[in-house]
Amino acid sequence: MAEYVILIYENESSYIDPSPEVWQEAMAAHGRFAEQVGEQGGKLLGGNALQPTPTATSIRGDVVTDGPFAETKEALGGFYLIEARDLDHALQIAKLCPAPFGGVEVRPVMNTSGG
Amino acid sequence: MLPADPEAGGGAEAGSGGAETGSGAAEAASGDAEAGAGDAGGRWITDVGAAVAEAHRREWAYVLAATVRVARDIDTAQDCVQDAYAAALDTWPRQGVPRNPGAWLTTTARRRALDVLRRGRTLRAKLPLLVEPAPAQDPELDPGLDPGAEHDGGPIPDDRLRLVFTCCHPALAREAQVALTLRLVCGLTTAEIAQAFLVAEPTMAARVTRAKKKISAARIPYRVPGAAELPERLDAVLTVVHLLYTTGHTAPAGAQLVRAELVERAADLARMLAALMPDEQEVRGLLALILLTDARRGARVDSGGRLLLLAEQDRSQWDQAAIAQGSRLAAGALRRGRPGRFALQAAIAAVHAQARTYAETDWHQLVRLYGELLAAWPSPVVALNRAVALAMVQGPGAGLAEIGVLEQDGRLAGYRYLPAAKADLLRRLGRADEAAHAYRAALELADNAAERSFLAGRIAELTQPELTQPGPTQPGPTQPGPTQPGPTAARAE
Question: Per the CB < 8 Å rule, is B217 touching A108?
Fold first, then answer.
């Protein structure tokens, strides 16, 4: 098994002052996804939703600036850390990850333990 | 698209992996490839160099795929296979060419891989490739990992399909898929691949190295996809092979119209896939398409290198054996279910190939087939081809109207065969000034020398006063692109 991060990139404006229905639907979808990871034979190791990019603060060198690194239409809004057999398995799981206003990116986690 | 796309900054990474430097043996072997290329294998081969070259072309994929299973790492496997070919150059002159060169090379390469594994070098340094054990086989008991088994001469699993599907995995960019397929499945050196696509060698080396790193870092499995994924994954494989073919068939730039090496590699790959997946219609369709289109190769340029249109070609020079085989395959690919895009393109190529003269071409049938193809594969290039066929049935005006719609659409902006097709229809309508204008637009977009000289010739004809009125009754030859269905249809995908 290997670890992958599923990065959720979505259009943030869709979540600004969401209606209760949109919010509940998103919560329910993510709840369902958490169950599906196990059903697919993977393992959910962690994950979180992030506050939107206006809350971001960037540091480059010693310089602290407001805002995210890049202003783009679709921003990183949350992530999951999962365990899967291989990339095909990870993609199969990631396809179930809700991202109605954008998409997801799957990245293998680097093993930094050396060897 | 692929060819003219040197990656900015790619060269900087070339040296980092160190993996992509050509081995002397592989280069020696492929350098001699012409010598053994035409040999069917039955003739006594006296020249060992030719025998090694022959084995390189015919057996590379099999040997590498079987070695990956043992080495569990593509770079290591590749090194071991290159060592095995070097060993062949050294051993065969003394001991004679073995009866089964592929088995000899595989055994030698796998034994080397076992040596490397025993020294534990790669497993510490790299993530091992995910090799799924063959059914009912425990990975620890894989006979391939038992040194004793090497001498049994037992069957070595044919992993070539795994290798192909790994190289063409959708997680890799198309150009990386193409490069990896040529490097790993065909055994071309990065220098050869770089030359084929007119890219600097360090750029190509970086591309291949990056792709191989992604395979191991992201753990792209060494596996043939299951039934649910197969159609989509197979389509990617066929697209790569077809792209190799089209790049070879009409080189996108340069002095040569055809790059025979690429055409032959693509045909070899299609044959291999058809042998390994005999029930897949689209695989048959692709092989048929390549055979039928390539059957015309010898007739496509005259002795002076001038491009000859379908209408002008000496059909007695077409390869009738290839046409017969291609037509049989195409018919088979159409027989079951809804035909896919390769089967339909093959059927279109078969209609052209079976016409004894240009005038006898069954244009009604072509319009129908292009319509079906458009439904299966809604590409504006297909629509352009259909417009050209329609012009042959209903007259240039009808074709011109369809091309007008495509111009509005805008997706073919920059596609040289659109203005070329339009120019031809205008020429046939006697609208010389407009035709010359459209030919000039096509000329601006064409990079291939043979195509450029053809277009320049047309402009010269149209701008000579006495030739400005070619009677609209003359069904003059049509353009190089749209009348040669297969290759151009894929070009602007």
Answer: yes
Residues B51-78: what's their mean pLDDT?
91
Residue B380 lies in a domain: yes
Q: Does B361 score more than 50 pLDDT?
A: yes
Indicate which CATH number applies to the domain containing B392: 1.25.40
Does residue A115 form part of some domain? no
Runs of H (alpha helix) within A57-111: 87-94
Burial string for B88-117 (b: 16+ CB within 10 Å, else e) reads bbebbeeeebbeebbbbbbbbbbbbbbebb
Residue B238 has pLDDT above 90, yes or no: yes
Task: Name the residue range of residue A78's domain.
Answer: 2-108
Q: Please give the single-letter amino acid code of residue A93.
A: I
Q: Residue A69's pLDDT band (boundaries 50, 70, 90)?
A: confident
Tokens, residue B221: 């499995």
* CATH number of the structural domain spanning residue A31: 3.30.70.1060
Q: Which of B125, B219, B229 sits opposite A86 (nearest CB)?
A: B219
- Chain A positions in Cβ-Cβ contact with residue B169 (cut-off 8 Å): 87
DSSP for B213-233 reads HHHHHTT--BSPPPTTTHHHH
The CA-based diameter of chain B, rounded to the nearest angstrom, is 82
Q: Is residue A10 part of a domain?
A: yes
Residue from A85, A86, A109 to probe the interface with B (highest B Cβ count within 10 Å):
A86
Contact A88 B220 (CB under 8 A): yes
In a domain, B343, yes or no: no
Size of interface A-B (CB pairs under 8 A): 27
Please state, in angstroms and rounded to a whole number, the distance separating the CA atoms of residues B314 and B296: 9
Among the three residues B101, B125, B160, which one is the final residue of a domain in this structure? B160
Give domain status of residue B315, yes or no. no
Q: Which residues of B are less than 8 Å from A91 in CB distance?
A: 171
Question: Is residue B479, in this structure, part of any structural domain at all?
Answer: yes
Q: How many Å apart are CA B374 and CA B389, to the nearest integer?
A: 13
Q: What pLDDT is stored for residue B3 in this prediction?
A: 34
Whose structure tokens read 């069904």? B475
- Mean residue pLDDT of chain B comes to 81
On whether the CB atoms of residues B388 and B351 are closer than 8 A, the answer is: no
In angstroms, the CA B267 to CA B271 distance is 6
Q: CB under 8 Å to A112, separation ≥6 — which residues?
A: none
C-alpha–C-alpha distance, residues A27 and A34, integer Å? 11
Scanning B129-158 for CB atoms below 8 A from A yields 130
Paired tokens of B426: 């205008």
Cβ contact, residue pair A87, B219, below 8 Å? yes
State how many domains chain A has: 1
- Measured distance CA(B88)–CA(B76) in Å, rounded: 18
- Band the pLDDT of A1: cuts 50, 70, 90: confident
Segment B198-211 shows an average pLDDT of 93
Question: B126 lies in which domain range?
Answer: 12-160
